[in-house]
Amino acid sequence: MFVSDCLNVNKLGHLTIGGMDTVALAEQYGTPLYVMDEAQIRSNCRKYKNSIDRFYSGNGIAAYASKALCCKALCKIAMEEGMGLDVVSGGELHTAMSVGFPPEHIFYHGNNKTVEELVTALQYGVGRIVVDNLTELDVLNQLASAQGKNVSIFFRVKPGIDAHTHEFIRTGQIDSKFGLALETGEAMQAVKLASAYKNITLKGLHCHIGSQIFDIEPFELAAQVMLGFIADIKRETGMELQELNLGGGFGIKYVPDHQPVEYDRYMERVSKVVHQTCAQLGLQIPYIIIEPGRSVVGNAGITLYTIGAVKNIPNVRTYVSVDGGMTDNPRYALYHSEYHALVANKANQQRDMTVTVAGKCCESGDLIGEGMLIQKAQAGDILAVLATGAYNYSMSSNYNRLPKPPVVMVKDGESRVVIKRETYDDILKNDLL
Fold this sequence. Notes:
Layout: E1 7-9, E2 15-17, E3 20-21, H1 22-29, E4 33-37, H2 38-55, E5 60-65, H3 72-80, E6 84-87, H4 90-98, E7 106-108, H5 115-124, E8 128-131, H6 134-147, E9 151-158, E10 180-181, H7 186-196, E11 200-206, H8 217-237, E12 243-245, H9 263-281, E13 287-290, H10 294-297, E14 301-313, E15 317-322, H11 331-335, E16 341-343, E17 353-358, E18 367-374, E19 382-386, E20 407-411, E21 414-419, H12 424-428
Parallel strand pairs: 4-20, 5-6, 5-13, 6-7, 7-8, 8-9, 9-10, 9-11, 11-12, 12-13, 15-17
Antiparallel strand pairs: 1-2, 2-3, 4-14, 14-15, 14-19, 16-19, 17-18, 20-21
Helix pairs in contact: 2-9, 5-6, 8-9
């Protein structure tokens, strides 16, 4: 029934997260409400860190992909758990630096970083800037020269892997806005150009083949391709790159039918490919970076709503409307993403009502899901949508001028607000007459 170990049902028949009653949380903080289990997040971080220690003898780092959920509390947890950090904007970098995150452990991504963002990254001393294209390479060299600095970079390379996910979240194939292509010779051209720039040091390569991937084979193939390119670089230039960032994209369980592979199993199998391929190609084992995001926070979060109208259209469907919607969870509208939901105050009852969960926005496509099986629902019930810790708050909006919900963290029987609920005045604060 549940998609995460941090969820359970108490003696009142209420859904709990981290041992805390979700109905009580909804009463205390109001709805819509994001709730995150800190122990689950930390456990997920440790699984990745331990796998680096186990399968690469500590020669690497797991960097939390903060786009999944970026706030001060998450950056601080990642730092305390010995993770690196993947950022993709000036805002994410600023958030990280606001809690004192070590800049040398930050990896700065993005296909169109602005000059201002690159200048800031240089000023902070970001550990690795992941260069996406030749224009960025040239601009970055000029900016580094102006600051009298030498900047360490990776190149983002498209390994040509189809990860079999939704077309919007496949990023490793040649027809992608991200990265440099191998097939056209563009990636090798970039490597040779970088070696000629005085203010650039090429440290390694990066790839990312997609998101919400359940198969291990695409990750194995990507590792082979990237190591093959490192060998090609060594053969053509004499330079052997010492770092390899294999990205993230590990799938999580959104619904009970999803069966993601245990993350250490991913790590074990890919590490075998890395070791075998390096031996075959005469390469040293590079420093390995991975970038889990969704799999760190996704299953640690839920969203709580209050049910309003229940509208039955005979022989068509039953709509259950909630006090949130695409403003706090746009993923169904974007990807038709699957979710599992239940009535939190009736969690011990049978799920025998098939519904479409509708949001409150003035938009026909404002749905959380269709054909969802939940307990018999009525106005005033609390609906819990599970596995919403990743990309829900991050992608939230103020459409229809709806305030964003708060994020509450639970740990050891206590709860605290880590992102405040927006007010109507918050929405107005940048308006001018």
